[in-house]
Design a protein that fits this description.
It is a single chain. With 128 residues, the chain is of the alpha+beta class. The protein has three helices and three strands; from the N terminus they run ααββαβ. The chain has two domains: 36 residues, no CATH class; 64 residues, no CATH class. A three-stranded antiparallel β-sheet has the order 2-1-3. A hairpin with a 5-residue loop joins strand 1 and strand 2. The chain is globular. 15% of the residues are buried.
Length: 128
């Protein structure tokens, strides 16, 4: 991928062309050096199966280990292995899980709540 950035300059200043080409060269150089191979992760289960497995693993294996002292934090669970990571945000939890298990199929739950996110003013806290 090569990123091309063009600057619009209406002034006839001769140095603007030099500045433009310098910026383009720097952008092309940095873009080439930052190209990485990206892992494309595809879900291997239906949404229903993801939810069933994720909830089952959370209730049977993970909940008792994470609930105390982590209320409101996020847990990402690999629905194939049961491995999990706890963090403050879904992105952080999933990234940590992928570091440990690059092929993970993550299910995300907010500890002590029925949903990861909520809309409106009603609390979704579960009675424990």
């Amino acid at each position: 991928m090569i990123l091309k950035v063009e600057f619009c300059d209406v002034s006839p200043n001769p140095s603007s062309e030099a500045i433009r080409s310098t910026h383009q060269a720097k952008i092309k150089e940095s873009t080439r050096s930052e190209i990485k191979s990206m892992t494309v992760r595809q879900p291997r289960y239906s949404k229903e199966e993801f939810a069933r497995r994720g909830d089952e693993i959370y209730e049977s294996q993970v909940r008792s280990q994470v609930e105390e002292g982590n209320h409101g934090k996020i847990v990402a669970i690999n629905i194939e292995t049961g491995a999990f990571e706890v963090a403050n945000t879904p992105m952080e939890a999933v990234d940590r899980l992928y570091e440990r298990e690059p092929d993970a199929q993550p299910w995300v739950i907010r500890i002590g709540h029925r949903a990861v996110f909520r809309f409106g003013s009603r609390s979704l806290s579960q009675s424990v």
